[in-house]
Design a protein that fits this description.
It is a single chain. The protein is of the alpha/beta class. About 25% of the residues lie in helices and about 30% in strands. It is built from four helices and nine strands. The chain has a five-stranded mixed β-sheet. Strands 1-2 form a two-stranded antiparallel sheet. The chain has a two-stranded antiparallel sheet with strand order 6-7. Helix 1 runs parallel beside helix 4. The longest helix has 13 residues. It is globular, with a radius of gyration of 14 Å. The model has no long low-confidence stretch (mean pLDDT about 95).
Length: about 150
């Protein structure tokens, strides 16, 4: 698991428009990376919309959403809710594994691998300032606002 002071693992993934997004291109800015299980599901919608609603209050902090969904599903999600920030398609869950959020889960007695909803605030130097594993959808925007002092 990553913690405060850890170097943020690299990200190079396509967004909802098919553009390659590199975490390294945001060096010098704070970046919130949030991992969500599936676009357009109730909890993920609450989390993504909550972040959209506070985006103007977090200064220059970049917001990046990451899920295993394909770019087309990410685009539908963005279009439907006017999210306005990059949604990255981690279809092979390599980035999720690097951040320690790809794990065995259980629902209705069935075991499967999936995203553990989590968020990370990366500082201007590329290190993790805050790591919030198993964060609730409602707490994600609140924790971001607290972290940036708003």
């Amino acid at each position: 698991m990553l913690s405060s002071g850890s170097v943020a693992p690299a990200i190079a993934l396509p967004d909802q428009h098919g553009n390659q997004v590199l975490l390294s291109s945001f060096l010098g800015q704070r970046v919130l990376i949030f991992f969500y299980p599936k676009a357009s599901t109730p909890g993920c919608t609450q989390q993504a919309c909550g972040l959209r609603d506070v985006a103007a209050q977090v200064g220059g902090t970049v917001i990046l959403g990451v899920s295993p969904d394909k770019p087309a599903a990410q685009k539908k999600f963005d279009d439907k809710y006017s999210l306005g920030y990059p949604l990255l398609a981690d279809t092979e869950h390599e980035v999720a594994e690097a951040y320690g959020v790809w794990a065995q889960k259980s629902m209705y007695g069935k075991q499967y691998m999936g995203i553990v909803r989590s968020a990370f605030l990366v500082g201007v130097d590329g290190t993790i300032e805050y790591a919030w594993y198993k964060i609730s959808p409602a707490d994600t925007p609140k924790k971001l606002l607290e972290a940036v002092g708003k």
